[in-house]
Structure formats: C-alpha cells, structure tokens
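User: Here's a protein and a ligand (S-adenosylmethionine). What would the complex look like?
Assistant: Let me lay out the input and then the predicted complex.
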Amino acid sequence: MSKRKNKSKKRHQGNANKGGGPNKGKAPRSGPPKKGKPPRHRGQKSVTAEVTCTGLTHEGKGIAQWKNEKLEVPHLLPGERAEVIISQKGKFTDVELKHVIEASKERVDPPCPYYYECGGCQLQHMSNATQADFKQQAINELMKPFAKPAPIFTMEHPYDYRNKSHTTYGMNHKRQVVGGLYEQNSHDIIDMDQCLIHDPKADDIANTIKEYMRKTKMQPYNEDTGHGFLRHVLIKVGKVSGEIMVVLVAASSEFKGKNNFVKTMRKGHPEITTMLLNVNKRDTSVVLGDQEKVLFGKGTITDTLCGLEFEISAKSFYQINPVQTEKLYGKAIEMAELSGKETVIDAYCGIGTIGLVASKKAGNVIGVELNKDAVKDAIRNSKRNGVTNARFYQGDAGKFMVDMAARGEKADVVIMDPPRSGSDEAFLSSVVKLKPEKVVYVSCNPETQARDLEYLTKNGYKVEGIQPVDMFPQTYHVETVAKLVRG
Ligand SMILES: C[S@@+](CC[C@H](N)C(=O)[O-])C[C@H]1O[C@@H](n2cnc3c(N)ncnc32)[C@H](O)[C@@H]1O
C-alpha cells in the first residue's frame, strides 16, 4: 500500500465517528475557485447570503429559507448558520456553502480530500451516528403509511466497502493524463489517487493504469473531439476470493500495444485474475458497450456470498457492498418464512444470488432477469453450488409474471429486487393475480418502493415489516427490504 494511502486511512479512521473537528466554523475547500479553472459563478448572477439550516432534504442537503425561496445547501447541517453563495442558472438556483459560521456538533471533518468537489459521497461531513439517524428518519417518514421500520443495519467500518469501481481518464489543461471521478454536476475529471469507499486494491490498479498512460502513447478518450482510446476502467473485486477483474472500456476495438499493456499490468498486479476489453463507441453516459473481448483469464470472477460461490461477468449486476448484502439477504430470507415446500419467484434476480440462497429452504425457485449475461451466470452459479431446485429465465419480469398468471400458475412467495426505477404495473398486477402468500420487496430506491407498496396494499397486501440497511455509507442512498402478506 502506498504512503498516500496510509496517510488517508489514518485520516478517515481518526475522524469518522467524532462530532466536530478542525473544519468546524471554517469554510470548506470548495470555497475559492481553483487555479486554471474558471470561477464557477462567472457570467452568472450570484449573491452571498447568511442562512440558518432548518432540516435536510432526502439527499442530505441542508434546507434554508432565503427571502421567499427554499434553498437546498449541500454540506449544511440542521441548526447551522452559514454564508452561502446563491447563483441563478437560468430557471435553476445553485447554492454553494461558503463558510460555516456556527457549526453543529454533528459535523465532522470529511476524511476524503476530494469530498467537496466530488459528487460521489454526500454525507461525509456527518458523523456515522448522524448518517444513520438521517437515513432512519428518511425511511420512517417515507414508510409512515405502511409500517414502522426497524432500526437500520449500519456498517462497522463504513469505508473501502465497494467491490466495484469506475475510473474515468482524460487530459487536463496541461495535456497531462488525469484519472478519477467526475466533479459534481460536470464532466470534469478530478485527478484522484484514491476514493475512500472503493476497495484500495482497485485504486492501486487504476493508478498504475494512469502511470502507464503517462509513460506510453495510450491516449484517454476525448468526449468533445471523439479522439483517443481509453474511456473508463471498471474494476470488480471478489472481496472473499481475492479475484480481480479489470475491464478497459475503450472507444475502439483496435488496441495498439495490447501485449505490452497486459504484460505490464500482470507483472505489477499479479492479483488481477482476468482482464477484458469492452468497446463503447456510443456517446452516452452508459459505461459499458456491447462488444467484449477477454484479454486474459476466464473473463469472469468468482466470489463467495452467504456461503455460496458466485461467478460474475463484467456486465452482470452484483451487490456492491457484500458485508451489508449478507445482512440484507439474511433479513429477506427470514421475512420469506420458508418451510422447504414453497415455490419462490426471484424476480429481477441478477446472477441468481437471492434465489440460490433461498433455494436451500424452498421447494423450488424460479428466477427471472432481463440481462442475458446475468442469466448465464445464474445458471452456472446454480450448477456450481449443486442447486437442483432452481431455474432461471431471461426476460422482462413484468411480462414473465403476466404469462405465469395467464397460465394459471401459482407461487407461494415472490421475492422482488427491481432496479432504482422500481417495478411496473404489469408485474404488480400479476403478483395480485398469482396471489402469493408473501411478497418480499428488496429495493435500492425506497421512493419507488413506497409507490409500489401503495399499489400492493391497495390490492390485498399488508406490510408487516420494513428493514432499512445502510448499503451505501457516506452517500444518501439506503437499501430497504419490506415484508408483505396477503389478506
Ligand atoms: C437491483 S438489481 C438486483 C439483482 C439481484 N437480485 C441481486 O441482489 O444481485 C436489479 C436487476 O434487475 C434487472 N432488471 C432490470 N429491469 C428488468 C426487467 N424489466 N425485468 C427483469 N429484470 C430486470 C437488472 O438487470 C438487475 O440485474
């Protein structure tokens, strides 16, 4: 591990739980515009005002009244008095924290030096206890019409938890290669050597790639001109197995110097077990393209979760925080109250994780998932773990359920874990027709979950329990699992 990393580790372990810190009452780093960059407020009408924070938005921004406007101030805490910069951007009002005049005792020094520039984390200025309290209150409020949520499952060491990271590469104004994450609300890259929620091994690899690019002719892709080669690097780490996948996302399939690159990376990082080239020629914010080529290794990694082994492809979904996932899945299976006889549907099943864990306690499991690669992984995973009572199908979960209901088929338990947008009416109305005794709804977006719970509770189901899980510490995101019973 590099010296830089040790230093920073010390920083975040030292501060994460304390209330207050040296930044108390001082302006955060985001204040003065940086050299070489235009000031953020040039050409915009901006004013400085003093405000008092009265609450938090669901994204963790401070709420403050200014004249007749309700402002949302990033990094401000309830009770704090602060100077803010208010700028008008067309119809939108942009607010930036300039200086905290009176700090809350819940404020801590964010351990990450890039925190105020980067949009990745939003809550590092809150102590761990305050973050938990903020998430609990948000879920309690949202779920009020349904049931009282249980106390949130927090994480003991809420850093270094991500098993998947994306690094974007580009050139700075001095034509030097930079690599890191995007600045908040922009496509400017912050040149960073670590992100405190990433797996440190992934950041070491991303830094080696940056050094390699600086020494060779490997060019980062330029979004404006369409020239250059490397767009992003996606790294997946098997936290238990130690296997590591590196995916170079490039704008072209022509990889000049491929052999030298692979040789250098394998020599410097023998922990990399597979490397792929993914070609993304599209001009979108979607990271991965359709074309994929294995550069070495088997093209997938394997990891252990809840005592089972899972093979994971580059494009398949796999929960990003395995420590908290085990708690989440444990709760979901407990809520399903399986006796060994039930037919369980694992809808939006990804690589089959929840369904395969449930299969040990169920009669049989039917998994459905849209992503082809993930379904292949799920079938392989079921064989790998000797599971004989699970089947996996590729397709839209809504259509699959409609067809099942039309055929008059039955299910005892539906476990559903849709993407952030939630489920849809086709799916939910078919659940109502299939009449499972229980529905266990896992969600990474409690707002869409609350919308879908409203549908199900209006159509014969009752919410019997809600468990929030802090799956994404330092960010405002929360995972929840809800248990619904029929009748
Ligand atoms: C939040 S992930 C959950 C995956 C899995 N349950 C897990 O815990 O790893 C949501 C999954 O839904 C899949 N998905 C998205 N839209 C879908 C649809 N319309 N029908 C079926 N699956 C879908 C995604 O590909 C993704 O794998």
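Summary: The chain has three domains: 3-118, 164-305, 321-486.
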